[in-house]
Amino acid sequence: MKIIVTSIFVEDQDQALEFYSETLGFEKKHDVPTGEFRWITLVSPEDQKGTELLLEPNKHPAATEYQKKLFAEGIPVTMFGVADIHAEYKRLMEKGVKFTIEPTKMGENTIAVFDDTCGNLIQIIQE
């Protein structure tokens, strides 16, 4: 068994697709109409056959509440690995990304947390 898709709730699929592809650099793998919404997945350009990230609409009341509460508590919804967190932090800052936690050493790892503009906090980590 392996993880093939993981999802995050987003307030606006078009805005999320733009942020995750143009700002973060993920590549769109699927964009399929499913009625009112779309099945949009992205992959890392470094692992195009790897786990897909699904941009899931947060239109269900439980999803909206879950997303808002995590954000309010400062809890990231997922974590992305980076080779050089300081270079990635600089690159994203230059693209206007707002960080809630600057690169911070936590034991053996260094983490940072940013706002994805779609209702989520995302953590990056350099192991």
TrEMBL record:
<dbReference type="GO" id="GO:0016829">
    <property type="term" value="F:lyase activity"/>
</dbReference>
<protein>
    <submittedName>
        <fullName>Enzyme related to lactoylglutathione lyase</fullName>
    </submittedName>
</protein>
<dbReference type="InterPro" id="IPR029068">
    <property type="entry name" value="Glyas_Bleomycin-R_OHBP_Dase"/>
</dbReference>
<feature type="domain" description="VOC">
    <location>
        <begin position="1"/>
        <end position="127"/>
    </location>
</feature>
<dbReference type="InterPro" id="IPR037523">
    <property type="entry name" value="VOC_core"/>
</dbReference>
<dbReference type="Pfam" id="PF00903">
    <property type="entry name" value="Glyoxalase"/>
</dbReference>
<keyword id="KW-0456">Lyase</keyword>
<dbReference type="InterPro" id="IPR004360">
    <property type="entry name" value="Glyas_Fos-R_dOase_dom"/>
</dbReference>
